[in-house]
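**User:** Hello, beginner here. Are you able to go through the protein record under this note? It all follows right here:
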Amino acid sequence: MKATLMPQEDTAPLITEVALFAGTKFTVVDLEWNVQALPDGPTINLNDSVQKVYESLLELNPKYDADF
């Protein structure tokens, strides 16, 4: 009989970053990125993780990697 490992994601309690750092000296803040989506375009502000900002840049400019 072959054992199968099942992910425990469904049973793990969800905890927010705010709850995780509650009672500590740490503060959770949104990251703000000042980026350019197009070579001659304006600088825009995006708030999120670096991965989400990169996804947004690709949505705004599918040739982002080639342009920069």
